[in-house]
Amino acid sequence: MKIFFGVQATGNGHITRARALASKLKQAGADVTYQFTGREQQKLFEMEVFGEYRWCSGLTFETREGHVRYLKTARKTNLPAFVRDVTTLDLREFDVVISDFEPVTSWAAIRQGVKTVGIGHQYAFGYDIPRDGVSIMGVQVLKRFAPATVGLGVHWHHFGHPILPPIIETVSVPPRAIDNSIIVYLPFEDVYQVVELLRPFHDHQFCVYSPMQYDPHYPAPAHIQVKALSRRGFQEDFATAAGVICNSGFELTSEALNWGKKLLVKPLQRQMEQLSNARAMEVLRLGQVMQELDGRVVQHWLDRCSSIRVYYPDVAAMVAEWLLGGVRAVEKNWVESIWDQVDWVRE
Q1: Which of its termini does the chain have fewer beta carbons within 10 Å around, N or C?
Q2: From 3.40.1130.10, 3.30.1950.10, 3.40.50.2000, 3.40.50.1820, which CATH number describes the 181-310 domain?
Q3: Model pLDDT, residue 97
Q4: Domain 2-169+313-346 has CATH 3.40.50.2300
Q5: Lowest mean pLDDT: which of 34-43, 237-246, 253-262, 272-281?
Q6: Averaged pLDDT for residues 11-38
Q7: Distance CA 226, CA 222 (A)
Q8: How high is the pLDDT of residue 163?
């Protein structure tokens, strides 16, 4: 079976989900062509699992200090290039087309009348789930940014709808965490502000990953390490961390829950998906939320908050098997059978 798989690469979460699916699709014998958009190609790293993937600029959002900048986004969007990419992408040779919220693939499929499977957290917003920061702009972005014929939405809970558990590389027995070790990934924040936020907490060791280059002339205190993005390095530090401070994107938070790490999330402001994720996290009591970089909230979380471990099945393998069966409706019984294998344990 020939599959075309478009992935939104603005954040690492979509790529992480694609990695989990890539190995299962390969094991199933699928011939998959991947396309990544939304990030400069030279800033993609450790992409070997995807083979000779395609790249084009696509669409993305501009942010500054944890806020989406819609005007700047509009000014920097290269609409002619996007239209060209959509009109030149030929999907007719593929048996299945997948979009992980990737707009070039989605709109090319619509233009050619090709059925498309949308896989990702954003497709869960087609149902009645916890929401916050609702705006006309946010609703339209989720609805029209990367539309699909069939949506496989994923979330931390089904909320009574045909929504799947997270698609992640699950771990059965995580390594023992180091007490007071915290990994920090706040890519939409100013890294210098993050260092200042963490400066007072000398009793903890923080490992901060950031896409920003940190100036060595302004050394961080001894209990804070600032590192450049590296999947391998991040995985090693994540494995031994007792807690995670991150934005309220979906994939990293899902992995933290699966590994049993306590969570503190800071949503990207003016971004409906992240604000809604923060709301869902509070509703489900999965972690703590801070709306802005707030040392008092960090102090409370470090001192008092506990973790929860969520045991997820191998959803990626089940989705790969479903995909190879062809594009069809999402059956309620299939979704329920997957959720029956999920178990929550509070520490």
Answers
A1: C
A2: 3.40.50.2000
A3: 95
A4: no
A5: 34-43
A6: 92
A7: 10
A8: 97
